[in-house]
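ARCHIVE CARD
Drawer: 12
Card no.: 0347
Subject: one protein chain, sequence and derived structure
Cross-reference: see card 0346
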Amino acid sequence: MARRRRLEPLNAEELARVRADAASRHDARPNIGALGAAPIAQIASDSMAEQKREIDRLREETMAARADAARMIEAEARGLLLADVDLDDIDVDYLSRDRLPGGVEDDAWRALRSSIQAHGQRTPIELAAIPDGRRPYGLIAGYRRIAALQRLWEETGAPRWRTVRAIVRTPTTLGQAFLCMVEENEIRQNLGFFERGRICLRAVEQGAFPSIEAAVEALFSAASPAKRSKVRSFVLLVEELGDLLRYPRDLGERLGLRLAMAIKAGQGGALRRLVGEHGAVAASPEHEQALLARCLDRLRRAPTNGAGRPAPAARAASAGAFDEAGIGLTLRLRRRSDGVTFTLCGAISDEEAALASAALLDAVRRKRGADTV
């Protein structure tokens, strides 16, 4: 039988020894808080700090990208960027050209084509962005350069001639587009007065300006008053004789102003008939100008009423202008190759204009009906 051991309470010395031993063992154990809890908190804190730094960096990059985009948009709107545009994406008939048709393949154009072929296109053309147009871009300036590139493409088939270097502008109005074209050609290749008058007339016809006066003032605002006055005179010449002249680009300023003065004097109709009879046989610019001078001489020798002005009947016939009602309205008739044009000048309401148009058509209808009876 095992002998039981009697438990006796520890005395003060033994109790102190046990406590000291326990304390030493506790100090020797690993510090769980120092090795476990503290590293996790530190990692979380470092991660949050890194995320904040990344967010700040992305925010700065986004702000810089937006600033760059804004500068690019502004530069594009101001026409400071160049783009390579396919020739098929350009509507060359976006504006009526200030250069007359048929005036492209001259010595200067052939020299331009040779220069582009040898050295490439150095001067960009100007285009207008037209999102709703039949093509993405409309030509403002650079028709001759496009014609040269087109010819090089046709002759060589090299892909390098299929694109043109261009400045893409965003004119807010059609009038601004016309102004860009005129300014470019006024600087690079001085326009003749006939071409200046013609582009003013075409700009009004396309709705860019409400009147000839507004077109002249806007397109040639930097010109002297005397020069703008000459442009207005040539507008009359373009209206009256533009479709009859074979060499209008070569028409001199002095002869052109004489013709315009005759039109202002009410001799436009007679002058047109004379030019129509004799001008078609012009074989050269010099020949045509001699014929025009001869027509003016014939008008000057026409019968007058004693006061130096054409007789009333001759004046009415030559001018094609009638004011039979005596109410301050003038009806002008201009005969062209494709028909006639009636212009009713004076203060008139929309209702009165509609009545006048209806009466004119009714008169023609009744005349034709009478002719067939």
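Annotation on reverse: The chain has three domains: 73-190, 192-299, 327-373. The two ends are 162 Å apart (CA to CA).
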